[in-house]
Structure formats: C-alpha cells, structure tokens
Write a structure and sequence with these properties.
By secondary structure, the chain is mainly alpha-helical. 74% of the residues lie in helices and 0% in strands. The longest helix is centred in the first third of the chain and has 30 residues.
Length: 76
C-alpha cells in the first residue's frame, strides 16, 4: 500500500472513532438541555436573522395554553 493510501485509511479510521465520540457528546448535551436553555439558544439564533427583525415574533411560551383557550371556545 502506498503512503497516500495509508494516510487516507488512517484519516477514515480517525473520523470513524471521532464521529462516534462526537455522537456521544451530542447525545449527552441534548439529554442535559433544559427548555429555558433551548429558548435562550433559539433567541440567540433568531437575533442573527434579518438583523434582528424577528425579535417581535419570539415568544416565551409554546402557545399551547393559548391554543387550548381557543379550542375551548369551539365547545360553546
């Protein structure tokens, strides 16, 4: 096997191992993610979009309570 093939094989093997470790890290980070942290991260990402023009669209809740209130009016 030539030196270049050997280096490519090593590179692939390294990324197989690294990929598995990165998947473990991602899974652990998602497991520890709280709703408050997820909202804060979303606000940060949205603040970059359209120079922050989406700020007025951000909510602190999921809207589920508002939705249930709206559906309740259909019963009446």
């Amino acid at each position: 096997m030539g030196n270049e093939q050997h280096l490519m094989k090593r590179w692939v093997e390294t990324w197989k191992t690294t990929g598995e470790k990165l998947d473990q890290i991602k899974t652990e980070e998602l497991r520890r993610l709280t709703a408050d942290r997820a909202r804060a991260m979303s606000r940060t990402l949205l603040s970059f979009a359209n120079n922050g023009r989406f700020a007025e669209l951000r909510r602190e809740t999921s809207g589920l309570v508002d939705q249930q209130r709206y559906f309740a009016t259909w019963k009446r």
